[in-house]
Amino acid sequence: MKKNFVEELRWRGMLAQIMPGTEELLQKEMVTAYLGTDPTADSLHIGHLCGIMMLRHLQRCGHKPIILVGGATGMIGDPSGKSQERNLLDTETLYHNQECIKRQVSKFLDFDAEGENKAEMVNNYDWMKDFSFLDFARTVGKHITVNYMMAKESVQQRLNGTSRDGLSFTEFTYQLLQGYDFLHLYQTKGCKMQMGGNDQWGNMTTGTELIRRTLGNEAEAYALTCPLITKADGKKFGKTESGNVWLDPKRTTPYSFYQFWLNVSDDDAERYIKIFTSLDRDTIEALVAEHKQDPGMRVLQKRLADEVTTMVHSKEDLDMAKEASSILFGKGTKDTLRKLDEATLLSIFEGVPHFTLDKSLLGQPAVELVTRDDVKVFASTGEMRKLVQGGGVSLNKEKLTAFDRTVSADDLIDGKYLLVQRGKKNYFLITVK
Fold first, then answer.
1. How far is CA 394 from CA 71, 239, 323, in A?
2. In 3D, which of 288, 208, 356 has the Cα closest to residue 13?
3. CA distances (Å), origin 379, targets 222, 367, 376, 425, 428
4. How far is residue 231's CA from residue 264's CA, in Å, rounded to a whole number?
5. Burial (CB count within 10 angstroms: exposed 0-12, middle 13-18, buried 19+), residue 5
6. Between the CA atoms of 261, 264, 269 and 274, what dihedral angle is there, to the nearest 10 degrees?
7. What kind and span of H or E run contains 123?
8. In this structure, is the dihedral angle defined by the CA atoms of residues 337, 342, 344 and 347, taken in order, positive or negative?
9. Taking CA 366 as the corner, what is the angle to CA 361 and CA 372, rounded to the nearest 5 degrees?
10. In the structure, what pLDDT confidence band is assigned to residue 39 with cuts at 50, 70 and 90?
């Protein structure tokens, strides 16, 4: 017996709105369903993950997932929850972004599955690029009234908002374009359901309405949404001081990605482990119970960070992220440090004091290099000597046994960095140029 997809979403806290009859349809037959994503970047970020996990659960429950890359709609901009139009992209950039997104989504969905429910990726630019305005007006525009479109909350918010620019005609037609996507997939791929974030409900119901008005009331078209994920304090999920948490390791290192999940609050960890992992209900409930017995052990955060980092990146990246994490807490070694790539090294020591040293100064004793006015790791040579004698100074995670030990180019990590540690917790990163 296949799992009940709606019930799976419900217990995970991933169900916001659902059209009547949707659950019955999913229990009756294998359903093809789609979810749209924005191709305006060559990587998804963790704000997209709830939708991607919906598709993953859909496929695991025996249904067929389609991920739609909005190449055409991405050229326009969606007014839902946005105060400004998006930048318009050229075709070459859109297709590059699509391929990058597919590689990322392939870690969640099976595009090579045997049988009818293998995942597919489509791009609405493929069917919209040759669709003339007159054809669009005749095929789509005549079925949906302006009154119907004006009543949508996303449109009302822009019309009544503080933006001086108001709502462009381009954006106003967005719900018709998204509605036509649903109609096209319904007719060409037998797709009967659309999924998305709760801010998309208005656009999604326009699609079901267009299908019924075009094909008749007997046409079965449904929609369901997931809630917009926030943090326990109500703030936006997935943002850090440096911006989005991306799935692309070049944009967000696996170390920073792992740290994001490791540092969520207890309340958020309990919600997120249901939404962002495929762990079953019994496993999650056992983890929650264990966590509540001793919250200081952060059992939920550790398992959440392990699961999501492995799923998005790899087991090897998870191991490296854990090794990198250990460096800050005194467990790392010189070898661990040298194994790190430059981006990870800079991520780990992002918040520590940074200094720059001219390469011509190499070959001098350590004490001369780290007590300079422009590299003030120690207040004086006397302070450094005393700490070295007490075993309180490390260079590149190795105890410094002599304050006058010569520092050479061979000591540099990645050919340009020196890591000085004063005591247990004070780190200083020196870039040698």
1. 53, 34, 18
2. 288
3. 69, 11, 6, 17, 13
4. 9
5. buried
6. -40
7. strand 120-123
8. positive
9. 65
10. confident
Please report which confidence band the pLDDT of residue 83 belongs to, taking 50, 70 and 90 as the band edges.
Answer: very low
Q: Are 204 and 176 in contact (CB under 8 A)?
A: no
240 is catalytic: yes
Please tell me which residue in 12, 48, 56, 291 is annotated as part of the active site. 48
Q: Is 86 part of the annotated catalytic residue set?
A: yes
Q: Residue 350 corresponds to which amino acid?
A: E
- Which residue in the list 239, 339, 405, 422 is annotated as catalytic? 239
User: Mean pLDDT, to the nearest integer, of 367-384?
Assistant: 92
Q: Which range has the top average pLDDT, 53-57, 75-79, 152-156, 357-361?
A: 53-57
- pLDDT averaged over every residue in the chain: 90
Q: What is the pLDDT of residues 300-320, one digit of tens each?
A: 999 999 999 999 999 999 999
Could you give the 3-state DSSP secondary structure of residue 393? Answer: strand
The owner of tokens 């067929």 is 64
DSSP letters for 257-320: HHHHHHTS-HHHHHHHHHHS----HHHHHHHHHHHHH-GGG-HHHHHHHHHHHHHHS-HHHHHH
Q: What's the length of the chain?
A: 433
Nearest to 371 by CA among 361, 409, 397, 425: 361
Quick one: pLDDT at residue 151?
87
Q: What is the pLDDT of residues 100-118, one digit of tens each?
A: 999 999 999 999 988 899 9
- 84 token code pair: 């400004």
Task: Tell me whether residue 28 is one of the annotated catalytic residues.
Answer: no
Sign of CA pseudo-dihedral 161, 163, 169, 170: negative
359 is a catalytic site residue: no
Catalytic residue among 60, 86, 96, 302: 86
Q: Which of 37, 173, 178, 309 is catalytic?
A: 178
Give the pTM. 0.86
Which of 117, 150, 136, 220 is closest to 178 using CA atoms?
136
Whole-angstrom distance, CA of residue 317 vs CA of residue 329: 19
Q: What is the DSSP letter of 168?
A: -
Is there a catalytic annotation at residue 358? Answer: no
